[in-house]
Amino acid sequence: MIIRLENVNYIYNPNTPFEKKALDNINLTIDETDFIGLIGHTGSGKSTLVQHLNGLIRPTSGRVLVDGIDTKDTGNLLKVRQKVGLVFQYPEHQLFEETIYKDVAFGPSNLGLSQDEVHERVKTAIELVGLDFEKVKDRSPFELSGGQKRRVAIAGVLAMKPRVLVLDEPTAGLDPKGRDQILGRIKKLYEEKNITIILVSHSMEDIAKLVNRIVVMHRGKIVMDGKTKEVFKQVEKLEEIGLGIPQITNFMRKFKEKGHPVDDTVITVEEAKMELIRFLRSKENA
Amino acid sequence: MVDDMIRFENVTYKYGADGDDNQLVAVQDINLSVKKGEYLVILGHNGSGKSTLSKLMNGLLLPTEGNVYVNGMNTKEEENIWKIRKIAGMVFQNPDNQLVATIVEEDVAFGPENLGIPPEEIRRRVDKALDIVEMAEYKKHAPHLLSGGQKQRVAIAGILAMEPECVILDEPTAMLDPVGRAEVISTLKKLNRQEKKSIILITHYMDEAVEGDRVLIMEKGRIVMEGTPKDIFCQVDKVKELGLDVPQVTELAYELKKEGFDVPCDILTVEELVDAL
Amino acid sequence: MLRDITIGQYFPGDTIVHRLDPRTKILIAIMFIVSLFFIKSFYPYLFILAFVVLTVRLSKVPFRYVLKGLKPLILIILITFTINIFMTKGEVLFSIGPLDVTKEGIRQAVFMALRLIFLITGTSLLTLTTSPISLTDGIEKLMSPLRRFNVPVHELAMMMTIALRFIPTLLEETDKIMKAQTARGADFESGNIVKRAKNLVPLLVPLFINAFRRADELAIAMEARCYRGGHNRTRLNELKFTRNDVLVLIITTVFFGVIVSTRYI
User: Fold this and answer.
1) Is the CB of B114 less than 8 angstroms away from the CB of C228?
2) Which CATH class for the A3-228 domain?
3) Do C202 and A96 make contact, defined as CB atoms within 8 angstroms?
4) Along the 286 residues of chain A, how does pLDDT read in single tens digits?
């Protein structure tokens, strides 16, 4: 399954003094095997873009095709929303049911599935986010810790069995432990469940660790799109729009500038360690 | 004693009553003193007790056991409480939920208005506070139209307008994007260096601790590590075990040292590591 | 979608009308409303019309803004008009089925419709030219004598200010929660009234929970900023009655006095 955006434009409050062009001629194809990191400043159009992917917002002009379905075809919107799951920022603020089970069941119930099927999906979804189904199903979602609440909220989207999962800053406000747990789960979903992932994040370090493709947005346009390493190589271009690169990549570049022949395209600490050990050992031997 | 901005003596804080099943010991037997003009960073993961600790510092919570002194005044004595809150101002995590008024300058004026300060003096303080946080040009704006970092700076200005000696910030950057975080952290540095305010920054971002004079790490209601940023960062394994991050370069330096290379452990920035190698 | 609604509808400006003390404007609005109810013939409406036109001109608020205030109330105006036209007894002009249209009916209908229209334009002129915050200040000051009767005047004004501050935030949040639930297949747009009401649960519950959480955090933040009610509180911008205010108040009092007196002539 693929998602295709063709010449998509979106304007907020058209024909008023508050008119604002949020998306400017976007063309983008998302493939099944993609794990995309979507980066850009607040207000660059990322949020507007991701809301187009499941028809929450429909283009002012151009079109969005999800598995061949045009999101302007309002009769098929539920299908689109089932295929593309969207997890908003601070999703725990949308929990509303008395029990975790009921909350996670909300999505699949809206799809009109049988009780058995709903049960099966809720169970799977809760387990996918790393919670113990039997232990938590009858508890109130409001009793949980911040990180756990968020995982329940993500389970609520996973229970729709989406083939593409879009997450808008899923780790915002969490501490490092909570963040690592969530990111670990997302990685598993991609690797084991073959779910296409689109991750919106401000953390270049997280992006570097996880994704295989980066899409950079700036002022409503896609300004860069490519393999993770390829994008992080173009430091000048990223810095021009005020975005950074992982600290470790930055270090390797500076180190290379000092005249040390090292590979400055590494993007994780592990890679950097290997590269430096190789370099330092060869220097010792010389 | 007069040199102490804030002093904790054997402080324990429990949520819930004794004998209650849900009783939770949030902070246990803390002894701590913060010097005037000090920039202290308190780190810890969620639930480590760091937020409770901050609320004990200006009498929003009162210790179950032990005493907290702010500028020599005990927070338990009721007649001190407003003086204490004026001296030790506090900024919270969610910028939206601490702004009261519909116009920036009206919001900054809220604190001094509560203190009963004359209008001309309030005007002077509001203008000065907005200048310090570099938000003067937004003084007539509506807060809900500002970015997260801007809102948080307005919140800081609101505290500054009370002319406190100490500013306590409870995870002020947790909900901000990198631009907003950088704005807030540089504002704090300015407050400490130029305005000579004591700063107590509570956070779980290790990299924000770099500017501090001293770092504390909390775990299960206790202070488990204490020292200068460099002391703390040298113990990468221990810090990671406590569920916290270290900057990537610090981690790399530590890893290289483990492999037998001669790298100092107290690396905090990219430049330091480049120089060290 | 929801955030497009502008509540309070303040139209910023720096005209003589904008600069008047909010208390002056509130008092004028009250006189305006009261005098409307004293009018019993058509010609005093000409004075009222002149007053409205003059105020609009002086405040430089575009006329369509003033008229926009009427839009949500058009239905009420129409209902009043219809009821009056059919329910007033008198000289029958013609009949529609069992309903008689009388001469007095038409007169009464037009009369009541005009009263409503002026009522709305008059009050919206107040909110258009006075920022919400100074409006609240004005109300607080005007009501302050009631404090002697233990009316919590300051607290009420504070509540209004906070409500104004949080309306945009809550609208934004409503929008976000609606979208999040829609992404999970919720439907807010179809079905009969019972079903629609039921469908609102996933929106309202989180909205309330979040509002309580916000209220809690705000209360702590206010306390940390030394808030302890209205006692001994000062203000950044104290309200000041200027010569202009006095002058305008005298003129308008005479003006509305004349309108009221027309009833007894």
Assistant:
1) yes
2) alpha beta
3) yes
4) 689 999 999 998 887 767 889 999 999 999 999 999 999 998 899 999 999 999 999 999 999 999 999 999 988 999 999 999 999 999 999 999 999 999 999 999 999 899 999 999 999 999 999 999 999 999 999 988 888 999 999 999 999 999 999 999 999 988 888 899 999 999 999 999 999 999 999 999 999 999 999 999 999 999 999 999 999 999 999 988 888 899 999 999 999 988 888 888 889 999 999 999 998 888 877 6
- SS3 label, residue C54: helix
Q: Which amino acid is at C124?
A: S
Whole-angstrom distance, CA of residue C12 vs CA of residue C61: 9
Please name the residue of chain B whose CA is at the shortest distance from the CA of residue C164. B102
Q: Residue C236's closest chain B neighbor by CA? A: B119
Structure tokens that stand for A286 in this block: 């010389």
Phi, psi torsion values for B22, nearest 5 degrees: -90, 10
Q: Measured between alpha carbons, how far is C181 from C170 in angstroms, rounded to an integer?
A: 16
User: Side-chain half-sphere of A74: how many Cα atoms within 13 Å?
Assistant: 6
Residue B27's alpha-carbon distances to B66, B68, B201, B266, in angstroms, are 11, 13, 17, 30
Assigned CATH class of B4-246 = alpha beta
> Rounded to an integer, what distance in angstroms lies between the CA atom of residue A66 and that of residue A1?
8
CB contact under 8 A, C185 and A96: no
End-to-end CA gap in chain A? 53
CA B4 to chain centre: 17
What ipTM was assigned to the predicted interfaces of this complex? 0.90
Positive or negative torsion for Cα A132, A166, A200, A186: positive
- Residues in chain C with CB shorter than 8 Å from the CB of B58 are 224
How is chain A split into domains, by residue range? 3-228, 246-286
Q: What is the dihedral of CA C192, C197, C198, C203, to 10 degrees?
A: 130
d(CA C9, CA C4): 11
Separation CA C78–CA C84 (nearest Å): 10
- CA A239-A46-B146 angle, to 5 degrees, is 80
**Inter-chain residue contact A41 with B179, CB threshold 8 Å:** yes
Residue A43 dihedral angles phi and psi, to the nearest 5°: 90, 5
Q: Which helix (H) or strand (E) holds B180?
A: helix B178-193
Nearest residue in B to C172, CA atom: B144
The rounded distance, in Å, linking the Cα atoms of A72 and B131 is 49
**C238 part of contact set with chain B, CB < 8 Å:** yes
Beta bridge mates, B223: B218
Find the CB nearest B177 among A42, A176, A248.
A42
Tokens matching residue C42:
């058509």
CB contact under 8 A, A93 and C177: yes
**Yes or no, beta carbons of A254 and B256 under 8 Å apart:** no
**Token couple for A228:** 């993770």
Q: How many CB atoms lie within 10 A of CB A176?
A: 20
Q: pTM for the complete prediction?
A: 0.88
Phi-psi group of B134: left, alpha or beta (phi > 0 → left; psi -120 to 50 → alpha; rest → beta):
left
Residue B34, helix vs strand vs coil: strand
Tokens 């409770």 belong to residue: B52
Contacts with B256 from chain A: Cβ below 8 Å: 273, 276-277, 280
